[in-house]
């Protein structure tokens, strides 16, 4: 078993009277993919935000690489190797794709932006080379000079992932990366996520409503209901768990559309 990269201990988050995350305990080993599922409002995004540091927990502990990061700033966590993408695209529409990707270096490189503005040519070249390699890695080689808006929506999602890779993460947090993608794009995205795990040894925590994608890539699936972990296990165990199907009350066809494995 790989050693744990991310550990959540008795994690809680309250928003006034709303107990959004309750006593969550999860361990994510290195180079594995954890999929988070649960009905709307179950606490998935809140949990991801606490891992990235944009929200502080009301109680509990987060450990990354054996270090306590519970209250560390998002910037510090980026520099430690935790990068994320967002539900809504956050690309800069008037910058070429290569620059959009290179900007991701800003997460770990304090001078990232300045380098891109022409200071320190050798460093600028290195950043550009790395950005080009990351564009290649997500299948967007050849699109360096185009603007994000000239790419399909699916490719814009990949562009966001390429930008996150510039932070040289060991943990990548993906919030609904398949939202708005067609079937082919979703399948390509799933292949990309698996390649990042297998070729770069990346650890991934993924929120995804597209069950085909989530079940295809996750090593472990954790089911959140009303802020608490109902159960966690391998995708096949989760799909056959009557408690999980019941938790999606009114959505009892939740696993019906899964493509045959
Ligand atoms: N900033 C906030 N202030 C107050 N309540 C919040 C805040 N953020 C989230 N909540 C509440 O916390 C609960 C969990 O929300 P969260 O967005 O984490 O769920 P989710 O599982 O990601 O839902 P979805 O699948 O719809 O995105 C909900 O009841 C939500 O209304």
UniProtKB/TrEMBL annotation:
Keywords in alphabetical order: ATP-binding, Nucleotide-binding, Transport
Cross-referenced InterPro entries: AAA+_ATPase, ABC_AA/LPS_Transport, ABC_transporter-like_ATP-bd, ABC_transporter-like_CS, BCA_ABC_TP_C, P-loop_NTPase
Source organism, top-level taxon: Bacteria
Sequence ranges assigned to domain ABC transporter in this UniProt record: 6-251
A biological-process GO annotation: L-alanine transport
Any one GO molecular-function label of the UniProt entry: L-phenylalanine transmembrane transporter activity
Cellular component terms per the entry's GO annotation: plasma membrane
Pfam family, one: BCA_ABC_TP_C
CDD domains reported in the protein's UniProt record: ABC_Mj1267_LivG_branched
Protein name: ABC transporter related protein
Native organism: Desulfohalobium retbaense (strain ATCC 49708 / DSM 5692 / JCM 16813 / HR100)
